[in-house]
Amino acid sequence: MVSTLTPGQSRLAAVSLLALLLLLLLFAAIYPILSLNNHYDKRISGTRQQLQHYRRITSQADRYQAEHARLKRIRQSDKRYLQSETDSLAKAELQRRVKQVVASGKGDILSSQVERSEQEDGFNRVAIRVRMKSTLEEMMALVYRLETETPYLFVDDITVRSRLVTRRRLPATKAISQALKLLDIDFKLVGYMKRVGS
């Protein structure tokens, strides 16, 4: 078939083959560059979208910081919880609170003992065990004040026993009825403090 071509047709076929070969070589050289360019265009577009998203977030930063400061002030002024930062200070706060309430009445604290703290639903549960002597009416007033005032406290595991008064040690007749009214009271006082950093 090549021998039947005229010299002009042979030159045209050779030039066409050379042009086709050059086009193939040019495509083979340019295609990776075009695909790489397309890949980088997509990455640039994605990065621009992320940048716009981050700019929207940073434009709202002042509002979020103000809201965070407001919530922090509310948390710090929240009187429902013990205000101490550590367990030992919270237990001392509980002991102070019991002493204040008992001092305003006529009870007498015999002892107070700290108990182990526990984690409960995102809060530190702090407890002390209190032993005291008091009359029934004073004990009810004490429990009422402890559980209704701030910070929120809970009286738990309460035990009330009558005091033993030996016949040899009975006081004078006027004080006999008062001595018999006194009760031994044992209870656990529980309060909650927020976890530090929450």
What's the quick description here?
It is built from 5 helices and 5 strands, in the order αααβββαβαβ. It is of the alpha+beta class and 198 residues long.
Give a description of the structure.
This protein has 198 residues and is an alpha+beta fold. The chain folds into two domains: 2-59; 87-194, Alpha-Beta Plaits (2-Layer Sandwich), CATH 3.30.70. The protein is 55% helix and 22% strand. Strands 1, 2, 3, 4 and 5 form a five-stranded antiparallel sheet that branches. A hairpin with a 2-residue loop joins strand 2 (118-120) and strand 3.
Main sheet, how many strands, which sense, barrel? Answer: 5 strands, antiparallel
Pairing-aware structural class of the strands and helices? alpha+beta
Strand content: 15-25%
Which spans have pLDDT < 50 for at least 5 consecutive residues?
none
Distance between the termini: 89 Å
User: Helix content range of the residues, please?
Assistant: 55-70%
The value of Rg in angstroms is: 43 Å
What characteristics describe this protein?
2 domains; five-stranded antiparallel sheet; 5 strands; Alpha-Beta Plaits; rod-shaped; 198 residues; alpha+beta; 5 helices; 22% strand
Layout of helices and strands, plus pairs?
Blueprint: H1 7-59, H2 61-76, H3 87-104, E1 108-114, E2 118-120, E3 123-134, H4 136-148, E4 153-162, H5 173-181, E5 183-194
Antiparallel strand pairs: 1-3, 2-3, 3-5, 4-5
